[in-house]
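> forwarded from #structure-qc
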């Protein structure tokens, strides 16, 4: 398929100048830029969900073709190529922006905590655990996180422990707490 004609019939061209740009539509891919910090686990053959800007919310299935061995040191991003399982009809414009969600391989089950509960106290990351209406700071070692804000804990409070997700003020061991199921005036 000819996607660009860079010279018209009768034009003078010099050696090495492009006259036509030709692509094979079966070889279309999407260049995906991934933040290096959150790109752990990205590998070839992982399934992907593709949303083209021109497709009004219709998702296409795809997969990671390859992960480029050279990362971008300036933007701190890794580059991957994602291909469609089935090419859209009609083909999208070359260069169209797309949103790509890659499904990572399954990870082992671990306890999770909301990232809203994480706090830094004395240069240690942890959560405030509520025990008998008293607070105790429990350091955590984190694992993977998901798009909903849940973060795995390799080390931290026991499963089922009550932790503080929100506080109007900075907490200390001696802070008094009142447990509520929902913050008054907030929809969720």
């Amino acid at each position: 398929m000819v996607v660009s004609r860079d010279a018209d019939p009768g034009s003078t061209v010099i050696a090495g100048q492009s006259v036509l740009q030709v692509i094979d539509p079966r070889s279309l891919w999407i260049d995906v830029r991934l933040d290096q910090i959150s790109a752990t686990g990205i590998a070839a053959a992982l399934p992907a969900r593709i949303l083209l800007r021109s497709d009004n919310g219709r998702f296409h299935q795809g997969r990671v073709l390859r992960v480029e061995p050279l990362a971008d040191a300036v933007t701190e991003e890794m580059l991957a190529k994602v291909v469609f399982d089935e090419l859209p009809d009609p083909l999208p414009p070359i260069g169209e922006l797309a949103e790509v969600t890659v499904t990572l391989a399954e990870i082992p089950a671990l306890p999770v905590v909301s990232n809203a509960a994480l706090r830094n106290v004395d240069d240690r990351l942890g959560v405030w655990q509520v025990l008998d209406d008293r607070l105790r700071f429990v350091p955590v070692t984190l694992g993977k996180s998901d798009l909903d804000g849940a973060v795995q804990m390799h080390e931290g409070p026991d499963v089922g422990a009550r932790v503080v997700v929100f506080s109007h003020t900075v907490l200390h061991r001696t802070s008094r707490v009142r447990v509520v199921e929902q913050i008054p005036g907030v929809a969720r």
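QC bot note: The first strand starts at residue 2 and ends at 5. The radius of gyration is 25 Å.
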